[in-house]
Design goal:
- By secondary structure, this protein is an all-alpha fold.
- It has a domain at about 510-605.
- The protein has 35 helices and two strands.
- It has a two-stranded antiparallel sheet.
- The structure holds one DNA strand.
- Keywords: Repeat, Transit peptide.
- One of its GO terms (biological process) is RNA modification.
- GO terms for molecular function: RNA binding.
DNA sequence: ATAGGGTTAG
């Protein structure tokens, strides 16, 4: 109770002191210009938080209000600016003018607030004023509301300027709609008498494509920009560089070319954004020497520059070096302290290198620094939890996500679905899925895969139907999920129908994974001939997974002839991996062909191939124990006890089986 | 007292 009260006092003080200090300064600096009485009234209005609003005298001049609004915005306190604007409206509803509304709009932190101010503008008949309309457009654009932005844009009374076109295009960029951005750019070019595209227009267009992964288009547009006679500037060079790593074989060549272009245009040295892009570009392409060189030559560095170096090391698989840089950032202190991005990069680096334990350890360390994770951090951590089956930490992360209201974000929710599914909690996965406000393709695919991996084919098919109902177009991943669900449940006709549907209706050409699913589906059901025929129809040669699926089916159904024929084909195709050799060995053994089995085993050993043993994990009290068949994890507490219970269970199972065999004449396989 | 574009983490 006491704590709450003092908290409230603190909030009030902060609320009041800021404006009052500024008000005093205002009174001092502008006293000679008159309006003293009004300023006194305003001061009492701002300070009189406890007085009933209607008892305060109304002011008639908007200037001091506007000055104060501007001061709050310049100090990055949109909350205080908005509170002041509300107070202004409450005290004197007619006072906001063509300066006030743009200022309030700059402080709008959500599209809802922008809409409310829009309504005020309409009510005050100020919506058509160029400044108000311009800032309305900007506010809607910032929040990625292209429909509202378009509405304002179309209603703008004055001649459209390059700037208003640019703002409209940025609305499409923010909400990841590059096609509409492009279409708008086309309309702008068609209305060339009105306004001509400038460097900002091109940069906006570039970023519209960059931000949603259309990197090849970015590089094309960068060329178009140059060809259209528009000089590349620092901003556009930065975006173009960020797209280079995804250009395939030409990536490094393009990167170096644009680097050179930037040097020629004089936008490399002293332009931090370009420096940062360069470090990251070289790092992503594994050119650590170049990345380090650019980093070293940069005079001024900020957090992003350091993060680019961290990212570069992480992307090159040098996780320990990435961590070293982060530690160096911490020790240096000052302006470039590590932030969420730095930590997420290192955590992600360890996670993608397979060291999920280390990733989670670092997440704990980040929490100890009182840094709040964001959606990217949470997605990364949840994926590590899923890999380690660390459901307790996963639930803890879920709880944290709920507290910070990030749990319904698609990145986090998709991570949660995957984590719960992998940890065997399909029902939780479904709850998260149902609670999402908007589901993307990954959400649907994750849910499908969840049911698939638990053998719940009917549920998977129901989700697939819902997906069609929700008008979400399936992709290749979707079909891998449904086909494998069918395969595990032995739903042959359903699977065949889906495979055809995928090719004919959705125009998705089947990948190796799809063929593997189908061969598995047919093979497991005993349709070995059909499976083998499907392999024959494949446009490209089957890979080891496909052959493996067929061999596995031969083993299940004890078809030695088919197995031998298959093995001949595999060996003929020159397939040489341990996995398959082991499979072949086991297969011969299963068919009773011991000599052949031994022969392959010897061959394997001579080829220097050794299979690393498959591992399993179990999570006990937030700690994950890995074990292989026949071994005891040394750190496992109470291992002896566990094995005693296991022994008891085994003997009970044995008794049970003998009884069953006796009663039902079931012969165990 | 007022406007649009840029780099880093999945």
């Amino acid at each position: 109770m006491i704590k709450k009260k003092s908290y409230q006092v603190g909030v009030m003080l902060r609320w009041l002191v800021g404006p009052i200090c500024q008000m005093h300064r205002l009174l001092r600096t502008t006293a000679s210009r008159g309006c003293i009485r009004q300023r006194h009234r305003l001061l009492s209005a701002v300070a009189g938080g406890d007085q009933p609003i209607r008892d305060l005298p109304p002011t008639t001049c908007a200037v001091p209000w506007n000055r104060l609004l501007c001061a709050h915005i310049c100090r990055s306190r949109p909350d205080l600016a908005l509170a002041l604007y509300r107070r202004m409206r409450a005290l004197c509803p007619a006072l906001p003018n063509t300066y006030t509304l743009p200022l309030a709009l700059r402080a709008a932190t959500s599209p809802r607030i922008a809409s409310a101010i829009h309504a005020h503008a309409l009510h005050l008949s100020l919506h058509a004023h160029p400044d108000v309309a311009g800032q309305l457009l900007a506010a809607y654009a910032r929040h990625g509301r292209p429909d509202e932005a378009r509405h304002v844009f179309d209603a703008m009374p004055s001649k459209r300027t390059t700037m208003s076109w640019n703002t409209l295009i940025s609305a499409y960029s923010v909400c990841c709609d590059p096609d509409s951005a492009m279409a708008t750019f086309g309309r702008m070019a068609a209305a060339a008498d009105e306004a001509l595209p400038d460097a900002v227009t091109w940069t906006t267009l570039l970023s519209a494509h960059a931000r949603c992964g259309k990197h090849p288009v970015v590089l094309e547009l960068f060329g178009d920009m140059h060809r259209s006679g528009c000089e590349g500037n620092a901003e556009s060079v930065a975006v173009a560089l960020s797209a280079c790593p995804y250009a395939g074989d030409l990536a490094l060549g393009k990167g170096r070319a644009i680097h050179g272009y930037g040097v020629a245009k004089g936008v490399v040295r002293g332009y931090l954004f370009v420096t940062n892009s360069l470090v990251c570009m070289y790092g992503k392409l594994g050119k650590m020497d170049d990345a380090r060189k650019v980093f070293g030559e940069a005079g001024e560095k900020n957090t992003v520059t350091w993060n680019a170096l961290v990212t570069s090391y992480a992307a090159s698989g040098m996780c320990d070096e990435a961590l070293d840089v982060l530690v160096r950032m911490e020790q240096r202190g000052g302006m470039a302290a590590p932030n969420v991005v730095s930590w997420s990069a290192v955590i992600g680096g360890f996670a993608s290198s397979g060291d999920n334990e280390r990733a989670l350890e670092l997440f704990r360390r980040m929490q100890r620094r009182w840094l709040s994770p964001n959606v990217v951090t949470l997605a990364t951590v949840l994926s590590a939890c899923a890999e380690l089956l660390a459901v307790r930490l996963g639930r803890e992360v879920h709880a944290g996500a709920i507290r910070s209201m990030l749990d319904r974000h698609s990145l986090v929710a998709n991570g949660l679905i995957n984590m719960y599914a992998k940890c065997g909690r399909v029902a939780y996965a479904r709850t998260v899925f149902d609670g999402m406000k908007s589901r993307d393709l990954v959400s649907w695919n994750s849910m499908l895969a969840s049911y698939g991996m638990h053998g719940l084919c009917d549920d998977a098919l129901a989700v697939f139907a819902d997906m069609a109902e929700a008008k979400v177009d399936p992709d290749g991943v979707t079909f891998v999920a449904v086909l494998s669900a069918c395969s595990h449940a032995g739903r042959v006709s359903e699977g065949r129908r889906l495979f055809d549907q995928m090719i004919l209706e959705h125009r998705i050409s089947p990948s190796m994974e799809h063929y593997t699913c189908m061969v598995d589906l047919l093979g497991r059901a005993g349709l070995l001939k059909d499976a083998s025929e499907l392999i024959e129809t494949m446009p490209v040669g089957a890979d080891l997974c496909v052959w493996g699926a067929l061999l596995n089916s031969c083993r299940i159904h004890g078809d030695a002839a088919m197995a031998e024929a298959t093995i001949a084909k595999v060996l003929q195709a020159g397939a040489e991996t341990t996995g398959n050799h082991t499979l072949i060995t086991n297969l011969y053994a299963a068919c009773g062909m011991w000599d052949e089995s031994k022969r392959v085993r010897v061959m394997t050993r001579e080829a220097g191939l050794r299979k690393s043993p498959g591992q399993s994990w179990i999570e006990v009290k937030n700690k994950v124990f890995a074990f292989v068949a026949g071994s005891v994890p040394p750190s496992m507490p109470g291992a002896e006890e566990i094995f005693r219970v296991l022994d008891d269970l085994y003997s009970e199972m044995d008794d049970e089986r003998h009884t069953m065999e006796h009663d039902h004449h079931i012969v165990s396989v």
